[in-house]
Specification:
This protein is α+β, with helices and mostly antiparallel strands. The chain has one domain: Double-stranded beta-helix, CATH 3.60.130. The strands form two sheets. Strands 3, 4, 5, 6, 7, 8, 9, 10, 11, 12, 13 and 14 form a twelve-stranded mixed beta sheet that branches. The protein has a two-stranded parallel ribbon with strand order 1-2. A hairpin with a 6-residue loop joins strand 6 and strand 7. The mean pLDDT is 91.
Amino acid sequence: MNVKYQPELGKKYKGQFVSCSEQVDHLNILKDDKIKIINKNLSVCFVDENGQKVGAVIRNAATQNVAEHFGTKIKIMVNAHPPITCEATHKSEGIIVGQGFRRNPENSFPGEYVYKKKARSPEKQRIYDEGGNSLAKWLYDNGRKYFPWTVHSYEEFKKKVQLEDNKIIGAIFGAENYESVGHEDNDRSEFAIAYSYEFGVVSEGYFFYPDYGVAIEMSSNSIWCWKTKAIHSTAKLNLEKGGTRYTAAVTLTEKTARAIERQFKQ
């Protein structure tokens, strides 16, 4: 699908929660005739006016058994880690956690995201680490398969700091019923790669990409990607039927990238 870079739309929706429901007191993106709605049955690649791929979504990305397996791993990861507090420009609702490397606030070198107290036994942490690593590898490999252009910045960074090819860069983030205002991320990676899985029925939780004038109606078992420095958000969810949406995303934050580079220089 051809899209056009529209920074004026990004500016309009930056810092705003949006909705696709008449019942919620937020900006309703279905009423904006400048927004193209991507139906939940469509797999789409977005190409801008310069011929550059700027995002995509793949539906039914895995067999049901595999999808449930990795959906459960996201759920376990969310339950094992304390929530992350987002910055003021990145207001959000729901739960988001991280697993893997981050900048250690004590010395600015790489450290690992902590676990909740009940998950701190060495054996439990080993199991959780293995689950998070396999989830991150699976998601990254699928991103490389479906959206090969998204991994270029990761691979370049690996070469720069001489990381082994099988090493996961940075962290994987897991979320439960996550909703956020329009924002851009201060990430070193050009693209983020994400996966969604739903237990039960969830509706109205669109992934909103106003800089390119599209909103993706999200569905369970979908992999999608976006440019980290483009405005993006997640529309308010409708959880009236008792469902839960879990998402996982691979990206390399600027803080983590600098911490890894400091370690490399040592």
